[in-house]
Design goal:
The chain is an alpha+beta fold. It has two domains: 4-118, no CATH class; 119-157, no CATH class. Helices cover 26% and strands 19% of the residues. The protein is globular.
């Protein structure tokens, strides 16, 4: 089983998780309050103390930042490609000084869980199952996520 010591070696696992969170960010929307005068956003003036809503889900699927945005492509987050992602184009845990305090722990936990499960089992959506996001406080599957889980023969042999 993978351990904390294995985390630096789980680079592709991290790429898969990051791409998954690009498509389905846990924090799908956030808001910030303008704290100063003279702010413009997209060429429009924004008054002080106005709340601005950021659609993270939409930004993550914007082809200006991510070509073929609906395609699942972990290579977007390879070391050579990730450095080309514009600042604030990818923010599954928010960004800046108010970024989620638990993001490092969540990534560590996700990498260890995926690295434990993926070599031993294949997971596929159940026949007829469709992923439909439910946009409540966090993004989650609206009708659950029925899966077919099968042991991988190479591990079981």
């Amino acid at each position: 089983l993978p351990t904390f010591a294995d985390l630096p070696n789980l680079k592709y696992t991290e790429m898969v998780i990051k791409e998954s969170m690009r498509l389905y960010p846990p924090a799908w929307v956030t808001s910030r309050q303008v704290a100063t005068d003279g702010v413009t956003l997209g060429g429009y003036p924004v008054d002080k103390w106005v709340s601005v809503v950021v659609n993270i889900f939409g930004v993550h699927r914007d082809e200006r930042f991510f070509p073929e945005p609906e395609k699942f492509d972990p290579e977007r987050f390879s070391p050579e490609n990730e450095k080309n992602i514009q600042k604030y184009a990818y923010m599954p845990f928010g960004a800046g000084p108010r970024v989620c305090i638990g993001n490092a722990f969540a990534m560590m936990e996700a990498k260890l869980v995926l690295a434990t499960i993926a070599p031993r089992f294949s997971l596929r959506l159940a026949p007829g199952q469709r992923v439909q996001p439910d946009r409540v406080f966090t993004l989650r599957p609206k009708y659950g996520m029925k899966m077919v889980v099968a042991a991988r023969e190479s591990v079981m042999a």
